[in-house]
Specification:
- By secondary structure, this protein is an all-alpha fold.
- The chain has a domain at 74-239.
- It contains eight helices and no strands.
- The protein has helices spanning 2-60, 77-101, 103-117, 122-151, 158-173, 180-185, 187-215, 219-239.
- Helix 2 runs antiparallel to helix 7 (187-215), helix 2 (77-101) runs parallel beside helix 8 (219-239) and helix 7 (187-215) crosses helix 8.
- The radius of gyration is 24 Å and the shape is globular.
- It starts with a helix and ends in a 6-residue tail after the last helix.
Length: 245
């Protein structure tokens, strides 16, 4: 009787272990499916936004503006994507070197964005990077691109340079809102802590702007911005040993 119970118990544990392994494999497959579905839906949303924005700019041309910036249609997509990816990778690698070598900037960046970079899974990081790459470029370099083509007729006047600096300073300062609570309590102290990172953010706007004016398009800047945020986010997690699978 005891031997039968032992055999039955052993068989139960063997079956249970196999069942758990099967469930784990099934769960992994389901996660991959959900991840792929999310990517697909996000990709569709991005394409819709790009086309809508391009249609808007197209209709501006009927108002008498013969030159208008293109977002997707009519540009060399492959070349612009390559430029965008390479630019984002280079800036993210420079950021990683600064993270290791420059404690002043590392502390400032971690103070402002550390929580965002380690928040959630890699998919969360991917989603946040995509959102930043699209929407931040639309209200910064997008506005500049429209002004450059329509208002200033592709002339780099002193007024345009002033507007460029003003918009990108506002964009850089917007990163302080990640620490809104600290900003309300100690505005000056928060700004001082954030200053090293804000300077780097402003400098990073220069290659983004050059991409926009080279291709007369927001697409390469969006790709560069997304690549920078995502790759640097992964590198930051690795450096802090907080990479979440």
């Amino acid at each position: 009787m005891f031997g039968l119970m032992k055999l039955t118990t052993s068989s139960y544990f063997t079956i249970n272990v196999k069942f758990n392994k099967y469930n784990r494999k099934k769960i992994k497959i389901i996660k991959v499916i959900f991840f792929t579905e999310r990517l697909y839906n996000m990709g569709n949303l991005i394409l819709v936004l790009i086309v809508l924005f391009d249609v808007l700019l197209f209709f501006l041309s009927f108002l008498g503006f013969t030159q208008y910036p293109e977002l997707l249609l009519g540009i060399d997509i492959t070349t612009s994507l390559i430029y965008g990816i390479i630019t984002g990778l280079l800036i993210s690698l420079i950021g990683y070197v600064l993270l290791i070598k420059c404690r002043l900037w590392s502390n400032s960046m971690t103070f402002l964005l550390g929580g965002q970079l380690t928040k959630g899974s890699l998919f969360t990081l991917l989603r946040l990077s995509l959102a930043a790459g699209i929407f931040e470029e639309i209200y910064t370099r997008g506005i500049l691109l429209i002004l450059y083509n329509i208002v200033f007729a592709r002339m780099l006047t002193i007024h345009f340079v002033f507007i460029y600096f003003a918009i990108n300073i506002i964009w850089a300062l917007g990163h302080v809102l990640h620490r809104k609570k600290e900003l309300d309590i100690d505005t000056l102290g928060t700004l001082i802590k954030a200053l090293p990172h804000l300077v780097i953010v402003f400098i990073s706007s220069i290659p983004f702007a050059l991409l926009v004016y080279k291709f007369d398009s927001l697409l390469p800047a969006m790709v560069a911005h997304f690549t920078l945020d995502f790759v640097f986010g992964v590198l930051y997690r690795i450096s802090r040993r907080t990479l979440i699978h």
